[in-house]
Amino acid sequence: xxxxxxxxxxxxxxxxxxxxxxxxxxxxxxxxxxxxxxxxxxxxxxxxxxxxxxxxxxxxxxxxxxxxxxxxxxxxxxxxxxxxxxxxxxxxxxxxxxxxxxxxxxxxxxxxxxxxxxxxxxxxxxxxxxxxxxxxxxxxxxxxxxxxxxxxxxxxxxxxxxxxxxxxxxxxxxxxxxxxxxxxxxxxxxxxxxxxxxxxxxxxxxxxxxxxxxxxxxxxxxxxxxxxxxxxxxxxxxxxxxxxxxxxxxxxxxxxxxxxxxxxxxxxxxxxxxxxxxxxxxxxxxxxxxxxxxxxxxxxxx
Length: 302
Description:
- The chain has one domain (about 1-300).
- The protein is built from 13 helices and no strands.
- The chain has helices spanning about 5-30, 35-55, 65-95, 95-100, 105-120, 125-140, 155-180, 190-210, 225-250, 255-260, 265-270, 270-275, 285-300.
- Helix 2 (about 35-55) packs across helix 9 (about 225-250), helix 6 (about 125-140) packs parallel to helix 10 (about 255-260) and helix 9 (about 225-250) packs antiparallel against helix 10.
């Protein structure tokens, strides 16, 4: 079990991201994607800091070099501040189940970038597992899916814009994963790396908001229980637990493998999408789930 801890954490990350993204999307529909991300990043980073303080008894992780801060800072800024803002916009426009489908591109981009940058040439079984997982996601994407519940009959323009925003997130997240790996050489503690990465993302978001104060025009919406309640739960399971598990997974296994398992969100999101929006998966989506689970098994047994 411990030899596959990285892969197991990646799967757990996919579950937390699925529920967290759905809840953040619910909050964002009554405020804005940027405002949601502006709240979640410092809240999640604070929870990470408190966890570090309690578990280590120190105020801040020591020993991080300037180069590590550079890589982790770029990773957090690109993957968390930029990428997640686009993802929440995609969820607001197309719904969580449709928007998350574009995350299928993340492991492909991550593996392509990690090969020359990190020298992580995946073996044949890993490539086969990744291919099967991606095939499962494609089956879910390409099947006929008019949507249901709250997300039935959405305008095609909104769906396409939402998918485009989610695709930007997929690319940003993939590059961010590779940069995070560069920032964790040797025995770098994953929690410490998550903490550094999270606060750099907060800084990047603060710089953005300082030049775009209009993005905070809906700040009064935070008083709405339909905004702060789902956001409060999502902060704990997304940028706190999810980020910690994601960085630990990247530390323990190859970027390409971790990325493909973490980004089975198009499949794991089906459960919260049905629970919160009554957006039931189609038959092709369910087939895609079965195929992708088989691909995950290939990865776990390599």
